[in-house]
Amino acid sequence: MSKYINADELMAYLEREMNGDLKKMSNEAHFTLGLLLATEAADVEKVRHGKWIFDKNGYIACSCCDFRAYAEYKHIDFDHLNKYCPHCGAKMDGE
Ligand SMILES: [Zn+2]
Q: Fewest Cβ atoms closer than 10 Å to its Cβ: which of 25, 26, 53, 62?
């Protein structure tokens, strides 16, 4: 699985670590940072993790957005429900 970084957070971190003076970085670090910043940005969004829960009215709802995805079931096998919330896109693999 690819790992994505937030370039803005990286720059802020480096500036904090270098007390605002990125010229203190080594030539290798400058080169690497230049490569990172020149790389085309991917269109990614942070993955939300949730789970199906019974809400206060007994409906099966998303723990992230409270979307009621299923009517009330007394004996439901949670392993067979959608793996993603159709409303907020949360991945239903726990919290
Ligand atoms: Zn949701």
A: 26
